[in-house]
Amino acid sequence: MATKAKKNPRLASGRKRARQNVKLNAANTSLRSKYRTAVKKVEKAVLAGDKALATTLFQQAQSVLDSVADKGIFHKNKAARDKSRLSAKVKALALAA
C-alpha cells in the first residue's frame, strides 16, 4: 500500500501539532489495545470454563473499560455494552457450574 509522503507544515504551530499527533496517536493505540486485550482475556476464561478466573478478570476488565471510555478512546456506551455482555457471559458460566 503506497501512501503519499506527508508534507511538512510550514507554520511552527502546525509543526508542533504534527509532533503532538504522533504522541497522542501512540498513547491512544496503546489504550485501545489494552481495552481489547482485557475483553479477550475474560472471553477466553469463559470459553475455558474457569469461573474463578473469569470473575477476577472481569473485575479487572471493568476498570480498564471505564478508564479508557472516560478518556474518550471508545464511546461510553460501547464500554457499557461490552461490560454488560461480559457480565452476562460470566453469570451464565456461574449458573452452569
Automatic annotation (TrEMBL):
Q: Does the keyword Ribonucleoprotein apply?
A: yes
Q: Which domain of life is it from?
A: Bacteria
Question: Which parts form a coiled-coil structure per UniProt?
Answer: none
Region feature Disordered, mapped onto this chain:
1-20
Assigned protein family = Belongs to the bacterial ribosomal protein bS20 family.
- Sum up the protein's function in the record's words: Binds directly to 16S ribosomal RNA.
Question: What protein name does the entry list?
Answer: Small ribosomal subunit protein bS20
Q: What organism is the protein native to?
A: Comamonas nitrativorans
Q: What is the lineage of its organism?
A: Bacteria, Pseudomonadati, Pseudomonadota, Betaproteobacteria, Burkholderiales
